[in-house]
Amino acid sequence: xxxxxxxxxxxxxxxxxxxxxxxxxxxxxxxxxLDEITDLVHGFYARVRADGILGPIFDARIDDWPTxxxxxxxxxxxxxxGAGTYRGSPMSAHVALPGLQAELFQRWLxxxxxxxxxxxxxxxxxxxxxxxxxxxxxxxxxxxxxxxPEQPPSEIPHG
Length: 159
Ligand code: HEM
Fold this sequence. Notes:
62% helix
């Protein structure tokens, strides 16, 4: 019997694919500071909230923004500097959202790119961008497989 991957249990180690290993800890801890991550997260969600398409989707779901922002700082710190402070299940959080589409992920990525493009720390910007692309693709695939298992999954359009 073959085992289907359980997308609801997507963890950070799954995100670190393709080889399943994060960059060495010494490389990660020097990548950026917690303040830089906080600025990235706050800058990005300020753009999201001001966006005519994504803003209402987030505002309908999130009534405690400081808590969400703190979760997202823990998430990005765990990815970028190996903080190990994030515990959660991004896949199930997104599968629970009605009506997600490839174009919404494309928009999310465009706003994220706008934010990273303004960072002075280019190495951090590249690493964050790379994670965002891979995680967005994983979330969109998992979303489709959970919600529409009969349909072949589509990719997120480029640009
Ligand atoms: C169409 C694109 C997206 C939309 C509309 C979206 C929307 C949301 C919303 C509304 C929540 C709050 C869920 C809740 O608390 O009930 C959330 C949580 C979250 N999102 Fe997204 N998201 C998108 C893409 C992404 C991407 C690409 C990433 C990662 C790179 C991401 C990472 C997260 C994480 C880590 C959480 C917290 C989950 C937890 O509670 O632990 N999201 N998202």
